[in-house]
Amino acid sequence: MTDFSKQPVLVFDIETIADIDGARRVYPQLANLSDEDALTALTSLRIQESGDDFMRLPLHKIVCISVFYMKEGQPSLFSLTAEKLSEKEILSTFFRAFKDLNTLPQLVSWNGSGFDIPVLIYRAMLYDLSVPLLFEEGNRINAMRYDNYVNRFHTRHLDLMDRFSQYGSSRREAMTVVANLYGLPGKREVDGSQVGEMVAQQQWHELAIYCESDVLNTWLIYLRWMRLTGSLSSADFEMWQNQTRDFLQSKLEEDHSIRHQDFLAYWPVAH
After folding, report:
1. What is the CA radius of gyration of the chain?
2. Interatomic CA distance for residues 21 and 18, integer angstroms
3. Is residue 262 exposed (0-12), middle (13-18) or buried (19+ Cβ within 10 Å)?
4. 10 pLDDT above the threshold of 90
5. DSSP characters for 69-108?
6. Residue in 4, 55, 3 with CA at minimum distance from that of residue 27
7. Distance of alpha carbon 145 from alpha carbon 232, whole angstroms
8. What is the pLDDT of residues 59-95, one digit of tens each?
9. What domains lie within the chain, and their CATH numbers?
10. pTM check: above 0.85
11. What are phi and psi of 11, to 5 degrees?
12. Residues with Cβ < 8 Å from 47, sequence gap 6 or more?
């Protein structure tokens, strides 16, 4: 059985906007345009290239990383946003979780292999950052040869979307679909397409709440996966769900309101 008091678990999600400065280097025709016009032109170019406006992964600028972190049996939930941190600082702070071989976390994501990790790689290399243990494959540390974050079929990084689809053998489902199936809130009024506007309007609190909600959904789906695979007993599964609920009810804003009241409202207590 899994003992969350021994190995840390880190569930994460990133939010991004288009990197206009980077796009000017990739598409020289944007060089002399204003930011607003460059974004409009870039969006048009992407639609011509791919049929939709989803940016190339290297051109996703990270504006938020949210983390649900279970360490020594104690949960924490926080966000690193561009309100007060540069993108380089966001990345550097997040990478601190991978500095010590003895406390490396179990990494959990939804589509992390297809989106979040590749974006982290492109953006970290832009700033000359180094995080060796995240990419160690056993060349220097033999114990990580068969247990590392890089190999798709290892479980040190568990991409739930990838795993549920049997690594693409079946359709990859959106997190909110799976969350709703299990009676979890999923995505409510906000989705990823609204992140750019939220950043433009300086709605950093709303962005953090949205991203944190994604990691909460992912954490609770992960508990179900752990129960399915026999890593949690039925009693432990219920205990960790209840502990998560208690934690969220105790996480308050400055005005003493419950930070994730909306999430709790759409996560009914099972009877």
Report:
1. 19
2. 9
3. middle
4. yes
5. EEETTEEEEEEEETTTS-HHHHHHHHHGGGS-GGGPPEEE
6. 55
7. 26
8. 999 999 999 999 999 999 999 999 999 999 999 999 9
9. 9-19+55-265 (3.30.420.10)
10. yes
11. -100, 130
12. 53
